[in-house]
């Protein structure tokens, strides 16, 4: 099959319908079109085959990195959004492929979903949409219902002003956002409320893909009391774990300063804990059979921790120790680092090691909560976001709401 990526936009003086009609008359049979008004495609090299990258940003401005464990796909109507997400998640290197499709003259979102759903190396699909063409919404959500993989979506053009902007940007009809939301819920699509949540959830679902949760019981280890309190306030699908007697005994042995309430599932290890002690507390908690997932929150300013650029990559530093724990354990774990640029290397070390790291406790807990809820479903049997229902045959039940 032959394909063309049309990167240029459509001149504002030319009605899109006229442009589409002329383009349709010019395209030879059998040629598929991505775009126009897009940045095209990126696909990492794999299996001895070279990759492809039409994202025309100089590598000094945007270095696109992948890895052997990259398992996410980004499908985006906005080319610029692909650039910003790549940059924000550059240390995680989650993307196996990116498709910027712009005006969707030919290739539609449903086709892209079907293609990447069939790729066994893809674990999560992220979709940014501004609008859906007539009939495209039905095809998209039917595909989403059958995918069986987490689909994370963000829909812009929700308001009247946003819809006008979408129409001028990609000639898209934005549609009713409440209908879109209802259809996502029915199809098992995880709908992010903000663009920040969209980025956060890509990070969680990609990096935690090999650690499916067995339940929703969460424990945490922090070195600042306010983070355990804020973390507890953010629980929705998660519930606080109860530590077993054997775990409490282990914690008491580690608690040589006597400052930690070892019966609490959200341990405040205080700024007195050094790297080794901090990691020992985390490992003791994550090994408890009554704990299904863990969050670790670090205020890295404590002088007892190796978190500064000169020491953060040391093998006995907290970053290396947490990476080692995560690699040896099968339970999902997220990390929050509440600090400024001086600790960017500390964060980068953990991200490069495969940890899902967030800049604040709320983002960490919300992302973990969404990931776990998608994996274990809800108590009343309702399908959780991202856990698609089994495909139904004709007449097997109502389809998704129209979008």
Give the overall form: elongated
Largest sheet: 7 strands, mixed
Fourth-level CATH superfamily of the largest domain: Succinyl-CoA synthetase domains
Query: What is the typical, i.e. mean, pLDDT?
Result: 87
Q: How many structural domains can be distinguished in the coordinates?
A: 2
Point out poorly predicted stretches.
Answer: 378-403
- How far apart are the termini? 30 Å
Please tally the helical runs, counting DSSP H or I stretches of 4 or more residues.
Answer: 13
Give the second-level CATH assignment, the architecture of the largest domain: 3-Layer(aba) Sandwich
Topology at a glance:
Elements: E1 2-5, H1 16-26, E2 31-34, E3 40-43, E4 52-53, E5 72-76, H2 79-88, E6 95-100, H3 109-117, E7 124-129, H4 136-147, E8 151-155, H5 160-170, H6 177-187, E9 190-191, H7 195-207, E10 217-222, H8 225-233, E11 239-240, H9 245-254, E12 266-268, H10 275-286, E13 293-298, H11 318-328, E14 333-337, H12 344-352, E15 356-358, H13 361-376
Parallel strand pairs: 1-2, 5-6, 5-7, 7-8, 8-9, 10-11, 10-12, 10-13, 13-14, 14-15
Antiparallel strand pairs: 3-4, 3-6
How is this structure best summarized?
With 403 residues, this protein is an alpha/beta fold. Helix content is 36%, strand content 16%. A seven-stranded mixed β-sheet has the order 4-3-6-5-7-8-9, with helices on both faces. Strands 10, 11, 12, 13, 14 and 15 form a six-stranded parallel β-sheet that branches. A two-stranded parallel sheet has the order 1-2.
């Amino acid at each position: 099959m032959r394909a063309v990526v049309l990167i240029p936009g459509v001149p504002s003086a030319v009605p899109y319908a006229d442009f589409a009609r002329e383009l349709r008359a010019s395209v030879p049979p059998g040629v598929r079109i991505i775009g126009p008004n897009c940045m095209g495609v990126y696909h990492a090299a794999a299996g001895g085959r070279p990759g492809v990258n039409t994202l025309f940003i100089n590598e000094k401005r945007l270095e696109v990195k992948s890895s052997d464990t990259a398992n996410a796909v980004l499908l985006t109507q906005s080319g610029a959004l692909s650039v910003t997400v790549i940059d924000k998640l550059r240390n995680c290197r989650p993307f196996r492929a990116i498709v910027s499709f712009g005006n969707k003259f030919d290739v539609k979102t449903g086709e892209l979903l079907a293609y990447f759903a069939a790729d066994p190396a893809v674990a999560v699909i992220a979709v940014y949409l501004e609008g859906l063409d007539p009939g495209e919404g039905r095809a998209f959500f039917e595909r989403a219902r059958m995918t069986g993989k987490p689909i994370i979506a963000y829909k812009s053009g929700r308001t009247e002003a946003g819809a006008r902007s979408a129409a001028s940007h990609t000639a898209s009809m934005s549609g009713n956002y409440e209908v879109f939301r209802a259809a996502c819920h029915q199809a098992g699509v995880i709908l992010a409320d903000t663009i920040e949540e969209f980025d956060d959830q890509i990070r969680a679902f990609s990096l935690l893909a090999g650690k499916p949760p067995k339940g929703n019981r969460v424990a945490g280890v922090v070195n600042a009391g306010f983070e355990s309190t804020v973390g507890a306030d953010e629980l929705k699908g998660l519930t606080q774990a109860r530590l077993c007697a054997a775990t409490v005994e282990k914690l008491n042995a580690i608690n040589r300063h006597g400052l930690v309430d070892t019966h609490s599932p959200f341990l405040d290890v205080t700024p007195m804990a050094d790297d080794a002690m901090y990691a020992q507390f985390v490992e003791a908690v994550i090994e408890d059979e009554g704990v299904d997932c863990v969050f670790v929150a670090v205020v890295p300013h404590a002088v007892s921790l190796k978190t500064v650029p000169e020491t953060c990559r040391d093998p006995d530093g907290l970053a290396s120790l947490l990476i080692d724990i995560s690699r040896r354990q099968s339970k999902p774990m997220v990390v929050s680092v509440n600090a400024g640029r001086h600790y960017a290397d500390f964060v980068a070390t953990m991200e490069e090691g495969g940890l899902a790291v967030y800049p604040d406790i709320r983002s960490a807990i919300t992302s973990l909560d969404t990931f776990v809820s998608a994996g274990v479903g809800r108590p009343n049997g309702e399908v959780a976001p991202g856990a698609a229902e089994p495909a139904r045959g004709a007449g097997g039940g109502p389809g998704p709401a129209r979008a």
